[in-house]
Amino acid sequence: MTRTMQAAVLTGARAMRVDTVPLPEPGMGELRVRLEGCGVCSSNVEPWEGQPWSSYPGEPGGLGHEGWGVVDAIGEGISSADGDGFAIGDRVATLSGRSFAHYDLVAADMAVKLPPELAGMAVPGEPLGCVMNIFRRADVAAGQTVAIIGIGFLGALLTRLATDAGARVLAISRRPFSLDLARRYGAAETIPMDDHYAIIARVNELTGDAGCERVIECVGRQWPLDLAGELVGFGGRLVVAGYHQDGPRQINMQAWNWKGIDVVNAHERDPAVQMRGLREAVDAVASGRLDPAPLYTHRYPLDRLGEALDAARDRPDGFLKALVTF
To answer: For FRET with 62, which of 1, 97, 104, 105 sits at 20 to 30 Å CA-CA?
Structure first.
């Protein structure tokens, strides 16, 4: 008798259903993970809304790439639990792409075992790894002034990391809730993201008209990108952490060129680099260096995934990060 599982299937723009599909069997070098949950990413919103290049239906569990859970089957070619091996029952965070489902298959080299310190905790590894990789690319140093535009999940954790590195963080966000959060995560100054020129004036006041050595844009929209270019100082670094995948952007190359700034797109696509970030993130959370738990503000069952995607798009008051849990 064929064993089955439940998986979400994107059937069209703003159309999702939960199907019963065959339970996958792990192949060579693969783990099967019984998922405990999967985070909802802002990159899920565009396919959910419907892009001209989207095709439907999607694969079962598709869009879900922030999964964590328990290894329940192991394919051939995987070492024992000694060292870096895996055993049935290990809790893992994964980098895979079909985790809006009760089970997912993942290559063993794209999973990280979770230490006992994280027992019972939600661990959407991919966004946590992104935080660590973005921070590395930002190259923040003690004594710098760092503006972080957009205080959501990424922005809050980057605020903590930059503050711990000895930088002065200027947190810029549109919601009072987010600004309060930034202060709790260590921001030295908070600035409402309401008036373009008022923000520039305030940053100039705080930096003696020098601008910021580092600016990290975490929103993924045109105006925050424009603002980031205005706030970065001569010879500084503008780090694009926002997800800009809903269409082209325009930039003020004249200003960027004149200032001689470095521009970094901090979206890693090399699997080895992604895994480095994931391992660093697991260590950071296990050690208490990062505390993402307060940022998981909304939880949904699989059959309400559409509501979770709407919340990720609309960002109601108090929303930071949605998890689909099983």
So the answer is: 1
